[in-house]
Every structure is written in structure tokens, then in C-alpha cells.
Amino acid sequence: MSRYVAKHSKPEDIPRKKRGFLSRLFRFIGSLILIIILLAGALIGFLSATEYKPADTEDIAFDGDASGKLAAGQPFRIMTWNIGYGALGDNADFFMDGGTMVKTADEERVRSNLDGILSIVGEEKADIIMLQETDRDSSRSCHVNEYDMLRESLSGYTSGFANNFRVAFLPYPVPPIGKVDSGIATFSSYPVSGAERVQLPIPFTWPVRMANLKRCVLVSRLPVEGTDKELVLFNLHLEAYDDGEGKAAQTEMLAELLEAEAQKGNYVIAGGDFNQIFSNADTDAYPIREGMWEAGELDVDQFDGDWQFIMDEKTPSCRSLDQKYEGADKENFQYYLIDGFIVSGNIKVSSAATRDKEFKVSDHNPVVMDLELKDTTGESDNE
Length: 383
Known about the structure:
alpha+beta, 7-stranded mixed sheet, elongated
């Protein structure tokens, strides 16, 4: 054995065919590594060049034929609903929640979900509709322009859209999610005098930031007849898959924005998907099972002033996507309370309820609230 090792210990003594094979193998591995490095560099360069970089505030145009008259003492209805980009019906699970699916719907199912969403919206006859996860041109929703479909179907409303998520190509996971053009949309049967997109804190750093959400609030201003006040709407979808610091920073900024409007004497409503449960809600209603995604808690005490925090504890507003809902054990499913409203004290809330739509067309249920603006004529404004 020792003589054999000595005989073949020098490179020149390795058989010619074997040397040729090893040489080709090393060249192949080197070329493969170089290709991977070049592709990674090209991807980073592409994402950097196409990164969505919104300003801190941007004006948003509202279009439509709204002609309603908003006045104190007049009842009206508002709805908030995360529509799951038209692709998270009861047939879907999702890899980020522990499921296996990336592409969760074909075009037929997306359009079917949108038809169901429009039907439910029509049934509720809400005067103001706040939607989240509304896609315009995304691979995950088969490039169906959901916002245009909604806008064309909801006659008598004016509407505006603000991007929450815009990435030319999201390379994660395998197969990749691809292009995403998505955001939040507000529809109002009352005229909107002005609106803006306000950027929220971004918890992600480079390079993850380039292909991630840039969450915002869509702030819409509705004149109140007979007064110099406005109803100021905040449509939002706060952070989900962060370590908690992102949600906290976004909530802190939201509290400052709401308080600033309340100090002016305006009527204020923030509605949407908070990805948090309000601390004044019953946190035992839907206990978190081991290993499941857990929503944060929004501490209501961090909001100064006379605010109302509205969540319907009787009906879950969201379900987990660790498994399909269709055919699942409904009794032991993971549910959440994360959708609702924050309402200023000068608004009377008559009722609020989450509509149980059995998660057929979205992984969220819509939340509907009936209310009216209190007549504050003669009251002095807060300084």
C-alpha cells in the first residue's frame, strides 16, 4: 500500500485521462461560480435600478363622480377589507404562514374572487370603502388590474390608490413571486378635496429593502358641509413579518398623525389591517397555537386624547394561511383579530361588526361600521 501511494503521489504520475477529467471539472465549477456571481450582481443591479423610492409625502389624485353630501348628524357607513390581492380565497395556503403555496390562484380564480368581493361590497352599500392588498399588475394575481375592476364597478364613488408594494421582480422564494404592483385603495361616495400618500417607517435595510414593502397610509380629506372641518380618513396596512420594531415605529407615527388632525378639530378615522390586536380587545378570544404567526399588540394608551378602538371580538377578521380553509377543521383553525378602526371622540359609533364571509374570497373578513359625525358647532378648537 505504501508503494502504491508513493508511486501516484506526484501530479505528473496521475493518469492522463484522470488529469483531463479533473481539469474539466475544476473549470466547470469555476465557470458555474462565476456565472452565479454575475447573475447575483445583475439581479442586485436590476433591483437597485428599479427600486421603488417614494417621497415622504406624495399627492394622490382621486377620480370619480361622487356627489354625496357629508354633514354632522347624518348617518353613514364605512367598510375596511383586506381583499388578499384577489388570490387568497379558501383554496389557498401561503408559504410565509407555514403553507406550501407561492402562486395561490390562476386567472379564473382571481376573477372569481373579485366577483365575490364586488358582490359583498355591493351588499353592504358602504359610503366609504377602504381596501388593502389591491393589485394592479402583479404576477401573483395573474396581472389582473383589480383596482380598475373595482373602480369601474363602483359607480357613484371617487377613488384613489397608493402603492404599498411595488417591485419589478421579487426573486423569492423558488419559484419566485415575480412582479408586484399593489397597494391600498379608498372609495368615497362623498367628494374628496385632497389626498396624499404618507410614507411609514421602513424596518428593512439594504439589500432586503429593495424588494420589500414600502408601507404607507393613504390620507383622504372629505369636507363636512356647513363647517370648516374635514373628515380625515387614514387607510392603512401595517407591517406583518418584521421583528416587531417596524409595527411599533409605524404605530407611533400613526398616533402622531391622528393626534395632529384631532388637534385641528377634524373628524378622524383610521381603518385597515393593523396586523395587531388592540390592547383593549379580548386577547383570549383566539389563542395562538404553537408555531403559528402571532400578531403584535397595539397599546391603546399610547394614543393621547379621546379615541375609540373598534374591533369586533365575536368574529375573526383574519385566518391563518398555514393550510387551506376549504375542507379544514374549522373548530381548531388559527384565527386573528387584526382589522378594525380607530375613531376620534367627536364621532358617534352606532355599530361595528365583522361580516363572516367564511374566507371564501379572501383570507380576511370585511369590517363594517355605522356612525355619524357629532355636531361640534360652537365648540372651541383645541390649540
